[in-house]
């Protein structure tokens, strides 16, 4: 029974961490002091990140030798999207994007 508990604990902790991260993102955008909603563009990356891997899983036959290359490309694209989700707020902070419209 102990072997079945570990995957559930991992899934629960990952979902809890994701929910906390989204909550902080929403709270950070809603603060009246800053009044900046540009960081919400990160949500597009959260939505787009699983799409390449889901497409690759649908297209790939497990017995095919090329399936490994397709999955690796999908993982590479997913990694690029996730890294972009971290990089976009840094670019926004460096570009002073919000100061033009204030």
Concise overview:
The chain has 102 residues and is mainly α. It is 73% helix and 0% strand. It is found in: Membrane.
Description:
The chain crosses the membrane at residues 12-34, 40-60, 72-92. It is found in: Membrane. Belongs to the OB-RGRP/VPS55 family. Its main location: membrane. InterPro entries: Vps55/LEPROT. The structure is a single chain. The chain is an all-alpha fold and 102 residues long. It has two domains: 1-35; 36-102, no CATH class. The chain is built from four helices and no strands. Helix 2 packs antiparallel against helix 4 and helix 3 (51-59) packs antiparallel against helix 4.
Topology diagram in text:
Layout: H1 2-30, H2 42-48, H3 51-59, H4 67-95
Helix pairs in contact: 2-4, 3-4
Function: Negatively regulates growth hormone (GH) receptor cell surface expression in liver. May play a role in liver resistance to GH during periods of reduced nutrient availability.
GO cellular component, one term: membrane
Transmembrane segments: 12-34, 40-60, 72-92
Give short descriptive properties of this protein:
about 100 residues, mainly alpha, 4 helices, flat
Helical percentage? over 70%
Shape, principal axes of CA atoms: flat
Distance between the termini: 58 Å
How many beta strands in the DSSP annotation? Answer: 0
In total, the number of domains comes to 2
Mean pLDDT comes to 80
Function: Negatively regulates growth hormone (GH) receptor cell surface expression in liver. May play a role in liver resistance to GH during periods of reduced nutrient availability.
Protein name: Leptin receptor overlapping transcript-like 1
Keywords: Membrane, Transmembrane, Transmembrane helix
Subcellular location: Membrane
